[in-house]
Amino acid sequence: MDYVKNPKAIEDKSMQIIYDYVKDLGLTDDEVRVVSRTVHASGDVEYAQLVKMSPDAVQKGIEALDNGADIYTDVEMVRTGISKPALKLRGNEVHCLIKDENVAKMAK
């Protein structure tokens, strides 16, 4: 068996597999990209059926990022995977507060 060892090739193959699950969901191209990344990050193709968004959600998200909005996540792996150079171009930051002491206090 030949194993794919090139990281970009692995990602491309993964995204093609995911695309086969999302292509017939009636999504716009932008929504397909968002849902595909959600599935990719979760490792669960069933998420494709669960994600719902407003018709202009992707465009509003892009506008928010273009206007300098920060990104908040509760998953360190997601925080780490977000392109820092892309964020720097717009002046955004990404935050993960899962280990924040104040958040833990509020949760209790």
Quaternary state of the chains: single chain
Mean pLDDT: 91
The largest sheet has its strands arranged as 1-2
Major pleated sheet: 2 strands, parallel
What is the strand content?
A: 5-15%
Instruction: Please compute the radius of gyration using only Cα atoms.
Output: 16 Å
Low-confidence stretches: none
Shape: globular
Question: In total, how many beta strands?
Answer: 2
- Structural domains: how many: 2
Task: Sketch the topology as an H/E string, one letter per element.
Answer: HHHHEHHEH
Helix and strand arrangement:
Blueprint: H1 7-22, H2 29-42, H3 47-50, H4 57-66, E1 71-73, H5 76-81, H6 84-90, E2 94-96, H7 101-107
Task: Describe what is shown at a glance.
With 108 residues, this protein is mainly alpha-helical. The chain is built from seven helices and two strands; from the N terminus they run ααααβααβα.
Key descriptive features of the protein:
about 110 residues; mainly alpha; 2 domains; two-stranded parallel sheet; 7 helices; about 60% helix; about 5% strand
